[in-house]
């Protein structure tokens, strides 16, 4: 599941873990400066239930990234991922993100220093190209140089990025998807793990892509319809446990919600990530309505979730009777 700014925080990850136990999750991208100078407990804290978990770092200073990798290992993360794909102007001005694709030697140095600082896997997420540095040969050159530095996992967003003229949102939609180039990359680098990202929305597409690459990353679709991962543990990871129902997912969140509300967290910091759980079924609208209208109040607690869930159940029963 892709790292997504303002989405894949610890509360979303814990929620998703009630649906899938084996899918690799990522933090939001955290800059090396924020980690080295900020509140690490707040930025990096997570519950063991969120694992397996990868920390995505943004930065271009090899020594700073190495220090962050060491910190992440001490905190119990399972992987360190370097962001070489974000096209935002803020990231670009900071000299990292997708602009680093034009400086593969710099990325290689970052990887080398990070690998010296940690025993964890150090991976890279990048685009197929950036601006006019977007030929297949350019991407091969980037992967070759970074792989020679020791990186064995490349997560490839199958769209190029434009640093000028397109917003980050537009860079997720407008540049065309070029899946075949990622498939070709796997053929040219059979010894490294190639994972594809971009425009994938269901598990059928995942299974199709796994015929050509080693792994698949899903981003926005995972947030817009999180329950699509309910069968991923069985279909992708070979776990035969019965997936939880949507009702069970909600009920399993009660202790977590109780804990955080008791710590002073407003309920909507958690429920905002749960709004799309019932996407596409009767009751989805009332579920969202109850949560959005009530979760922001001081003192709101699991009773709001219970009320919303009962309303969904009621509508589902009415729908079932009409169908009969």
From TrEMBL:
* Domain DUS-like FMN-binding: start-end pairs: 1-309
Catalytic residues at 86 (proton donor)
GO MF terms on file?
A: flavin adenine dinucleotide binding; FMN binding; tRNA binding; tRNA-dihydrouridine20 synthase activity; tRNA-dihydrouridine20a synthase activity
Q: Which residues does the annotation list for site: Interacts with tRNA?
A: 83, 169, 172, 285
Tell me the first and last residues of the signal peptide. none
State the UniProt keywords alphabetically. Answer: Flavoprotein, FMN, NADP, Nucleotide-binding, Oxidoreductase, RNA-binding, tRNA processing, tRNA-binding
Indicate the enzyme's highest-level EC class. Answer: oxidoreductase
- Which species does the entry assign this protein to? Richelia intracellularis HH01
Q: Give yes or no: UniProt keyword tRNA-binding.
A: yes
| EC number from the UniProt entry | 1.3.1.91
| Job description of the protein | Catalyzes the synthesis of 5,6-dihydrouridine (D), a modified base found in the D-loop of most tRNAs, via the reduction of the C5-C6 double bond in target uridines. Specifically modifies U20 and U20a in tRNAs.
Provide the residue positions that the database annotates as binding FMN. Answer: 3-5, 56, 125, 157, 197-199, 219-220
Provide the organism lineage as a comma list. Bacteria, Bacillati, Cyanobacteriota, Cyanophyceae, Nostocales
Q: Which reaction does it catalyse?
A: 5,6-dihydrouridine(20a) in tRNA + NAD(+) = uridine(20a) in tRNA + NADH + H(+); 5,6-dihydrouridine(20a) in tRNA + NADP(+) = uridine(20a) in tRNA + NADPH + H(+); 5,6-dihydrouridine(20) in tRNA + NADP(+) = uridine(20) in tRNA + NADPH + H(+); 5,6-dihydrouridine(20) in tRNA + NAD(+) = uridine(20) in tRNA + NADH + H(+)
State the source organism's domain of life.
Bacteria
Task: List, alphabetically, the SUPFAM superfamilies matched.
Answer: FMN-linked oxidoreductases
Q: Which cofactor does it need?
A: FMN
Name by which UniProt lists this protein: tRNA-dihydrouridine(20/20a) synthase
* Family the UniProt entry places it in: Belongs to the dus family.
User: Known Pfam families for this protein?
Assistant: Dus
């Amino acid at each position: 599941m892709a790292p997504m700014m303002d989405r894949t925080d610890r509360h979303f990850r814990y929620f998703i873990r009630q649906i899938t136990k084996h899918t690799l999750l990522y933090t939001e991208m955290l800059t090396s400066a924020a980690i080295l100078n900020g509140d690490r407990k707040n930025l990096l804290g997570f519950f063991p239930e969120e694992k397996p978990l990868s920390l995505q770092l943004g930065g271009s200073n090899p020594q700073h990234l190495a220090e962050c990798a060491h910190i992440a290992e001490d905190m119990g993360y399972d992987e360190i991922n370097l962001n070489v794909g974000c096209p935002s102007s803020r990231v670009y001005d900071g000299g990292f993100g997708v602009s680093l694709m034009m400086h593969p030697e710099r990325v290689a140095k970052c990887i080398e220093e990070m690998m010296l600082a940690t025993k964890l896997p150090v991976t890279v997420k990048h685009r197929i190209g950036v601006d006019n540095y977007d030929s297949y040969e350019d991407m091969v050159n980037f992967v070759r140089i970074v792989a020679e530095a020791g990186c064995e996992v490349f997560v490839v967003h199958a769209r190029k990025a434009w640093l000028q003229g397109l917003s980050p949102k537009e860079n997720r939609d407008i540049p065309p998807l070029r899946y075949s180039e990622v498939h070709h990359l796997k053929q040219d680098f059979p010894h490294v793990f190639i994972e594809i990202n971009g425009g994938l929305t269901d598990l059928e597409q995942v299974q199709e892509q796994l015929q050509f690459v080693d792994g698949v990353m899903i981003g926005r679709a995972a947030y817009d319809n999180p329950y699509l991962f309910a069968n991923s543990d069985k279909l992708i990871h070979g776990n035969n446990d019965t997936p939880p129902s949507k009702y069970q997912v909600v009920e399993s969140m009660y202790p977590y919600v109780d804990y955080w509300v008791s710590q002073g967290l407003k309920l909507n910091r958690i429920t905002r990530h749960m709004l799309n759980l019932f996407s596409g079924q009767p009751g989805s609208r009332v579920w969202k309505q109850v949560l959005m209208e009530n979760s922001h109040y001081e003192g709101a607690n699991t009773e709001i979730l219970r009320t919303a869930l009962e309303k969904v159940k009621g509508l589902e029963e009415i729908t079932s009777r009409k169908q009969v």
